[in-house]
Amino acid sequence: MITWWASLSVLSKILWGVTLTATLVFIIQSILTFLGVDVDGATDFDVDASDLGGDLGGGINLYTFRNFVNFILGFGWTAILLKDSVQSKALLIIIATLVGIALVAIVMYLFRLLAKMQASGNIDVNTMAVGCTGRVYLTIPGERKGEGKVQITINESVREYQALTDGDTIKTDTPIKVVEVINESTLLVEELNSYIV
Asked: SS3 helix, strand, coil % of the chain, rounded to 5?
């Protein structure tokens, strides 16, 4: 093992190091996700996705730590596995980049499907959500320029909804209050601090 590592070039060592780190983070994220722990809410990049074209609608944000890890995972393993087969370094980088992008797209699609499969249970969001408080899960662009996500507590149960705001952009982890139900899956919210005098 030591002999193999010593025989690698500096770039190969960096590629292996980054790829193995991304793999370890991916495994930890997966285990925590299956245990029901929300790992991505605390690690979202604090980026206004609507300005960068990263708001994909439906509360899906392109710029998350999970997507970054997935891209590095796809890129790194592809580059490692094909480096001896593909002679052109430029072609290898293109292939690895496409695989990384494809992995991000597949994982985002699967999470979107899982979100749609969540049953709302016996909660009537139209009558029970207004006035509830919670926290922003994905940044909400200001002046209804895009959707973010919030987690609110209804009947001692934490629920996740898409959210809009009429005010300024509300960043991840900011406390909010629901002021109106737009539809079954989308709420109009305001930053909770705006209610404090």
From this structure: 45, 20, 35
In 3D space, the residue among 18, 142, 146, 171 whose CA is nearest the CA of residue 80 turns out to be 18
| The pair of three-digit structure tokens given for residue 6, joined into one six-digit string | 């010593």
Query: Would you say 110 and 67 are in contact if contact means Cβ atoms under 8 Å apart?
Result: no
Going from N- to C-terminal start, the domains of the chain cover: 6-117, 125-191
Could you read off the pLDDT of 2-22 as tens digits, one per residue?
788 788 888 888 889 999 999
Gap between the Cα atoms of 146 and 163, Å rounded = 9
Instruction: Name the amino acid, one letter, at 107.
Output: V
Note whether 35 and 156 are within 8 A (CB): no
Q: Among candidates 75, 47, 49, which has minimal Cα distance to 60?
A: 49
What is the rounded distance in angstroms from the CA atom of residue 121 to the CA atom of residue 101?
35
Of all residues in the chain, what percent carry a pLDDT higher than 70? Answer: 79
HSE (side-chain half, CA atoms, 13 Å) at 167: 15
Structurally, what CATH architecture does the domain formed by 125-191 represent? Beta Barrel (2.40)
Per DSSP, the residues of 167-180 read SS-B-TT-EEEEEE
Q: Which residues pair with 135 in a beta bridge?
A: 151, 175
